[in-house]
Write a sequence for this structure.
């Protein structure tokens, strides 16, 4: 993932996801990459890893509720220790903040109803996309959207934007943020995004109404130490005399 993807957001406009979507919606892109839009919409709404989309994202729709089940892709680290969430469920409503204007939400709600199975009014559809091909498609889409920029937009830029939005939202707890990211620890999100690049309102994002994960999120003492450090730094800045 690295700092490069995290820092990419600085050079992008606040509506970069909308710009990417418009490019992907052109006849040329839809004809050459017919499955890209559904994966792009999932990246936008959920900030998933490409490997998670490759495993298959289950989408459900019923009574105005759009639900996703994501199978985690990073469950064991190099030392054999448990990490991540085996599965997580994320729920949005058509009444969620930002849903009515978000093209990704609208697209997936229509998609699952038109292509999914229907069991008593409950629609279900599994969306998948090859991880490496998705990565290359997003890179190409970014270049087509911003030909004059040297910025490299990968799927992980979507993940960093998702994390930034979570950090900027005062209503999202660290525990829920960890679940939404598919993390086991509430400290892990610190590696992704910055609150300054997040969107507090519904513009450009849809706010989840519920999230569940297989494993209980572990609270890290590092989070408390970081909070104390930030509070002390803020106090120190306030005490510094202003330069006239």
């Amino acid at each position: 993932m690295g700092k490069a993807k995290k820092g990419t957001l600085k050079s992008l406009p606040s509506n970069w996801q909308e710009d990417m979507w418009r490019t992907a919606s052109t006849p040329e892109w839809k004809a050459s990459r017919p499955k890209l839009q559904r994966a792009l919409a999932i990246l936008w709404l959920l900030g998933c890893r490409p490997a998670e989309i490759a495993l298959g994202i289950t989408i459900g729709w019923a009574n105005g509720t759009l639900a996703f089940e994501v199978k985690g892709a990073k469950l064991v680290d190099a030392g054999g220790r448990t990490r991540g969430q085996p599965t997580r469920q994320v729920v949005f409503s058509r009444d969620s903040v930002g849903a009515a204007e978000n093209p990704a939400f609208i697209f997936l709600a229509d998609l699952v109803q038109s292509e999914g199975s229907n069991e008593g009014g409950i629609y279900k559809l599994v969306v998948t996309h090859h991880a490496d091909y998705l990565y290359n498609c997003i890179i190409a889409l970014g270049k087509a959207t911003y030909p004059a920029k040297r910025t490299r937009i990968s799927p992980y830029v979507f993940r960093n934007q998702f994390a930034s939005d979570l950090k900027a939202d005062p209503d999202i707890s660290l525990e829920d943020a960890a679940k939404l990211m598919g993390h086991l620890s509430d400290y892990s999100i610190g590696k992704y995004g910055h609150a300054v690049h997040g969107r507090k309102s519904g513009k450009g994002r849809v706010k989840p109404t519920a999230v569940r994960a297989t494993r209980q999120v572990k609270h890290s003492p590092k989070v408390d130490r970081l909070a104390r450090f930030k509070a002390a730094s803020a106090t120190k800045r306030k005490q510094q005399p202003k330069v006239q």
